[in-house]
Design goal:
Blueprint: H1 7-13, E1 25-29, E2 32-35, E3 40-43, H2 46-49, H3 58-68, H4 81-93, E4 98-102, H5 105-123, E5 130-134, H6 143-148, E6 165-168, H7 173-177, E7 184-189, E8 192-193, E9 199-200, H8 203-215, E10 219-223, H9 237-241, E11 247-250, E12 261-265, H10 267-270, H11 286-299, H12 302-326, E13 329-335, E14 338-343, H13 351-360, E15 363-364, E16 366-367, E17 372-375, H14 383-405
Parallel strand pairs: 3-15, 5-6, 5-7, 7-10, 10-11
Antiparallel strand pairs: 1-2, 2-3, 4-12, 8-9, 11-12, 13-14, 14-17, 16-17
Helix pairs in contact: 3-11, 4-11, 12-14, 13-14
Length: 406
């Protein structure tokens, strides 16, 4: 008999690095979840842009169950069929010629940054080690990636940090140009800053970074952990912008909820990562490969990509209607189904209040900093779930407005 557990047990047993919601989800289907009390919630959070096909998708269940009956894990001393098929799917669908598999976005970015330094050291010498990143970026929680991320709140308590990392102003090409030079080995950038507030890059900014990297023999790394696998209406956001990176990191939606990450790159660059230079025990395991292969098969289709654009319009129209009535947001921005509502001055710093109020109304949303309410739902969320979720969001907004006016 299983032990009965509750939200209070988190505070008793877990390292207190999270502050999870007061309810505990126990089952889900599509974009609706139920908690321990059988209360239902519409999911506009998508597991932080992970559950691209919603919850308990039958074809993902089948892929996992079939693979679980065959082969679970062997370690990196062996390869396996599902991961090889997934590698070919990603190569066929992107600029990439080589793939490295891992377990998370942070690991994918760690691999990308290590590749950049290794390639530069191999071809130009140890002096070429500088990395340029951007303020308010988020690239993961390892010591290397949290240093590259431009949010000191996440890194300041873990000094001394890895060196030779500088931060420019996002969407400011002149700021980047002042830092990028012949000692720069890589520039890492999110096509849309997710945790930093759902801020899309300007096309000219990414084109300018590509030119600067070419000029200084630096690698351009796109962190597509949050924007990848259909989130913007293209399989990867670089396709939307028409700017091709040298290295791309992907995770989150790649497994549709099953942990997997990948670094995509070219054959020329991959050659620097010879046997023994990098590794991971679980990376590229058969279970992850089978599920992610089915995810790519189901998402990389014109009808799904077109559907992202349609759902974007459902959200934007609904959020604009709410804003016309309640006057909460000074901007609604983003691409595809990565959307941020920027709170106006009257509600500055209160994004968490909207998050908590939404949960009370049976809706799961995200925040992106203190001033942005973020939405990253399933790419296939139903029109009825969107409509009902927006009704619940409006009730949550009204509750915050009422509370603020008391």
């Amino acid at each position: 008999m299983q032990q009965s557990v509750s939200r209070e047990n988190f505070d008793q047993w877990m390292v207190p690095s999270y502050a999870p919601a007061t309810f505990v989800p126990v089952r889900a289907e599509g974009s609706t979840l139920w908690d321990q009390d059988n209360k239902n919630y519409i999911d506009f959070a998508g597991g932080i842009a992970v559950n691209a096909l919603g919850h308990a998708h039958p074809e993902l269940q089948q892929a996992l169950q079939q693979q679980a009956a065959r082969l679970w894990h062997t370690g990196n001393g062996y390869t396996n069929e599902p991961i090889l098929r997934l590698a070919k799917q990603l190569i066929d669908a992107t600029f990439a010629e080589r793939v490295f598999f891992c377990n998370s976005g942070a690991e994918a970015n760690e691999a990308a940054l290590k590749l950049a330094r290794k390639y530069a050291h191999d071809h130009y010498g140890p002096h070429k080690s500088g990395i340029v990143a951007f303020n308010n970026a988020f690239h993961g929680r390892t010591l290397f990636t949290v240093s590259a991320g431009g949010q000191p709140a996440y890194s300041k308590d873990f000094a001394p940090l890895p060196g030779a990392i500088e931060h420019a102003v996002f969407n400011d090409l002149d700021s980047a140009a002042r830092l990028i030079n012949d000692e720069t080995c890589a520039v890492i950038v999110e096509p849309i800053q997710g945790e930093g507030g759902v801020v899309p890059a300007e096309p000219a900014f990414l084109r300018g970074l590509r030119a600067l990297c070419d000029q200084h023999n630096a690698l351009l790394i796109f962190d597509e952990v949050q924007t990848g696998v259909g989130r913007t209406g293209s399989l990867y956001a670089y396709m939307h912008y028409g700017v091709t990176p040298d290295v791309l990191s992907t995770a989150k939606a790649l497994g549709g909820g099953f942990p997997i990450g990948a670094m995509l790159t070219t054959e020329k660059l991959a050659s620097s990562m010879g046997v023994g230079t990098h590794g991971t025990t679980y990376g590229g395991n058969p279970l992850a490969g089978a599920v992610a292969g089915k995810v790519i098969e189901l998402i990389n289709r014109p009808d799904v990509m077109d559907g992202v654009g349609l759902r974007h319009r459902w959200f934007i129209d609904g959020l604009n209607a709410i804003n016309q009535r309640l006057h909460l947001f000074k901007e609604i921005r983003g691409l595809g189904l990565l959307i941020g509502c920027v709170l106006n001055e009257d509600y500055s710093g209160k994004a968490k209040q909207f998050n908590l109020a939404a949960a009370e109304q049976g809706l799961m949303v995200l925040i992106a900093g203190a001033n942005v309410v973020r939405f990253a739902p399933a790419l296939v969320i139903s029109e009825q779930e969107v409509k009902e979720g927006l009704v619940r969001f409006e009730r949550a907004c009204e509750a915050v407005v009422k509370g603020a006016s008391v």
